[in-house]
Amino acid sequence: MNNLVIGASSEITKELSKKIDIIAISKEDFDVRNLSEIESFVKSIVKKYGKFDNLIYIAGVQNIKPLRVMKIDEIKEMFDINFFGAMMFAKSFASKRVSNPNSSITFISSIAGIEAESGILAYSASKGALNNLIQGLAKEISPIRVNGVAPGFMQTKMTKVYTDEFVEEMQAKSPLGLVTPKDVADVIEFLISSSKITGEIIRIDGGYK
């Protein structure tokens, strides 16, 4: 299969590369904030590698600040990467010139898009919008399958800014332990191989309560 992953630097991508062959796009290859250039970029990738079977959108950014101190540019950046970039890549992938029959799109969302948390409201809102996009796309671009994975708290480069106390609190709230990038990669592998699953957002959070 020909698999396109947006977000090459992610630990999830590294785990996924152990399971399936991927063409991974990094920020150095293309900045997803360049929304108007996504369609032409995707066409150039198809010209080089051929049509794709699966699009996996892992690119994301989080900003941990109370809403009262956030700047509008910071909020826009989160929506550009977490939501608008995802939408525009999906728009391009939906073309028959880009994707093969029986193809799929998988987005990395977050439980924050399902259960909002204080201090990350803009992030939660961007992921909530992504969840709505997933369910709508599954209807609009069928037979392309569209699903999401909503991980709980993971210890990654993006979450190293959290205090040890906060990490311990998340562990206490997760009976099965904190989620790992491998856990997420396992679910992605399952979704792209499941021909009858679409419009679903798979929550993987270690039983977070």
List the helices and strands and how they pair.
Layout: E1 3-6, H1 11-16, E2 23-25, H2 38-49, E3 52-57, H3 72-93, E4 99-108, H4 121-140, E5 145-151, H5 164-172, H6 181-192, E6 201-204
Parallel strand pairs: 1-2, 1-3, 3-4, 4-5, 5-6
Helix pairs in contact: 2-3, 3-4
N- to C-terminal distance: 37 Å
Residue runs with pLDDT of under 50 for 5 or more positions: none
How big is the Rg? 16 Å
Major sheet attributes: 6 strands, parallel
Strand order of the largest sheet: 2-1-3-4-5-6
What's the helix-strand series? EHEHEHEHEHHE
Number of alpha- plus pi-helical segments: 6
Rough outline? globular
Average pLDDT over all residues: 93
Roughly what fraction of the amino acids lie in strands?
15-25%
What does this structure look like?
The chain has 209 residues and is of the alpha/beta class. It contains six helices and six strands. It has helices spanning 11-16, 38-49, 72-93, 121-140, 164-172, 181-192; strands at residues 3-6, 23-25, 52-57, 99-108, 145-151, 201-204. Strands 2-1-3-4-5-6 form a six-stranded parallel sheet, with helices on both faces. Strand 4 (99-108), helix 4 and strand 5 (145-151) form a beta-alpha-beta unit. The radius of gyration is 16 Å and the shape is globular. 38% of the residues are buried. The model has no long low-confidence stretch (mean pLDDT 93).
